[in-house]
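We emphasize that the prediction below concerns an isolated chain of 564 residues; any contacts that depend on oligomerization or on bound cofactors are therefore not represented. The input was used exactly as deposited, without trimming of termini.
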Amino acid sequence: MKQTLGKIREKLGPLLWIVLAVLLMILNLGVNTAHAEGLTPAENVQITSCAINGEQVQVTAVNYGGVLANDSQFYLFELAPYEDSIGTRTDYAATAPKGTEAAFAIPLNLGSASSRLYSKFAVAVWDGEQYVQVSHPVYITNPEVVAKNQEPFKTPLTKKGLLIETSMLDDAFHLGVKHVIVNFPFQFILGTGIDYEYEGKTYHFNKDLLDEYDKIVKNFTAKDLSVTAVILNSWNDATPDLYYPGVQQTAGINYYMFNASTKAGYEDIKAIASFLAEHYGGTGNGKVSNWIIGNEINNQEWNYIGPMDINQYVQEYERAFRVFYTAIKSTSANDRVYFSTDYNWNHEANGTTKYNAKDIIDTFQSRILAGGPIDWNLAYHPYSVPLTEPEFWDDGATGLVTWSETSPIVNIGNLSVLTDYFQKPEMLTASGQVRHIILSEQGFTSTSATRGECEELQAAAIAYAYYIVDSNPYIDAFIMSRQIDAPSEAQLSASFGLYRCDMNQPDRIVPTTMKKSYEVYRNIDKSTKTLEATKFAKEILGIEHWYDVIPDFRWKGLEKRTQN
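Result of the prediction step, given as a token string:
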């Protein structure tokens, strides 16, 4: 080498040799200080697959950039959900030769303290001084393959559902509902009485609380009802790790965002979620099939973390959602996992604590695609506008309900805006399927804020709404709120129940008399009774046929035959 350099020096002469030497020094300095000066490495890597295969995690990637010659390897780093970048770390998990493509394989270590089930992975290069991340982190996308419970999802016979008072289960069975909601208080599940070992650590759960929920879920399952669990995180001073760092109990806030941004919070979430999915896997304590993570996440009144722009907010929610998703799907493969929004599609956002539902959905999907596609689903709440009036069919007069995806509000009246949006190519699952949508909360008042009692209008609204949903193939469930009026809601003209309540007992939900809507809802999905039960509503709506206002009306053929 020294002889070669000498010959070059002789041919170039002293001056040109000095120039060449300086150029070489500059180039070398540029390579060695690229990271220090914030320069972008030549390599630009996209992870194209991150999946479990047998007992390994296999990661494949494509390099869309160049190949810097100072090192011949790509380096795969493992990150925990609460980590966002590799920083100055040096503990890479695997290497692959540099090129236009790269493939890595590392042990999954399932069930152990070193399990990689929840990890995300990033590719880095060595810049001469340290490792520089050149890819976006990507999570494992197929946790369901390791689940012991591979039972198929059991599709209910109808879409009819209800928020049920547990003391009136027989009444709900008489109604013929097939979907029910159970709200789980996440912050009280940790406790004593049940020991649960998960990934090398023992957790302690509240046996007294879970015994009560076991009775509820077991009874629902025994009646062949599809159970949807809503996981809610209200305040408990005894569980500080469940809340985002710095968040305090705040007046006017009902629930708080789940914390996966710290090691302690992440470990609690994954253990509780895995335990619940296993406990309610259908082997003795009943079966939960659908899991909704939080409530109406586009409004921080129901999912508080503190003022944030939408990108940071969704980043923190996605971080926690993925932990729940992985825990649930790796336990019970065919359960479905959802997040929920209210009906404010493009309405009432302030950019810091309230966000448009459409923007939340779009931002969430964008992050999911970047971080590894998973089959998330939507639980939507399409109340009428305002909630204190039952008619949704004239909500267009408010100017808030249109038939465009720019509509301020999407509710029952323009529901196809939502389902059309979810059929767009960019919203489909990785396998090209339309995501599951359930309407997990909606109701129609029998007490108008302006006209007083309006039972007939409530019953007509329920009939029309159910027919719209039942005729839309992209909606899986119509779960009404509620079986019995709640006094706190009824006094605000939100009397959503099929029964009136005893207003003299404001702290309890005690049924008194049945409303007209009860029999309508009972018969709405019965072919021999449905049209007769809803005949009264046509006059209220000013229509002759249901198929005139619902083009794909499920009972269209029956309605035509009945009228001939």
